[in-house]
Amino acid sequence: MITEEINQGIPARNIFLLGFSQGGSVVLSMAMTSRHELGGIVSIAGFLPFYEALKKKELGLNKSVPILMIHGEGDKIVLCQDGLTSAKTLKNDGYQVEFVTYSQIGHADIMMESEEKIIEFLQQIFTARKIKPLESSQEPEAKTIKIDKKSP
Predict the structure, then answer these.
(1) Where are the chain's structural domains?
(2) Which of 44, 66, 83, 124 has the fewest CB atoms within 10 Å distance of its CB?
């Protein structure tokens, strides 16, 4: 999927991955194993699965890439502690991780609660990289690829 975007002329540093739940786990795995230095990664209610296996395939190209991990403290499906442990693991490996929690928020409700934080996170990156908002006639400079449970 990332290669397809690059082949269409999108620079890898302008590709952002966002995933919810299992999709959050996928994008965290991509942080470690991607062959491309991406623009940023957002994991919502996800965790880092199979760390030892991923570590063997780690390329480390995304250690300087901002990673936002968001979790609800009331999540009974993917425990907040699992997300926190994953954030600490990535941070200890040199990744740039910000871990944000929302008290009393469960698994499904975290999407609406975290929308403002995600927008703020992306705006900070866009501002730092001088990526400007698009005019309606412009081709996108940055593209967000959403990976979730429904993605193939």
Answers:
(1) 16-50+63-131
(2) 124
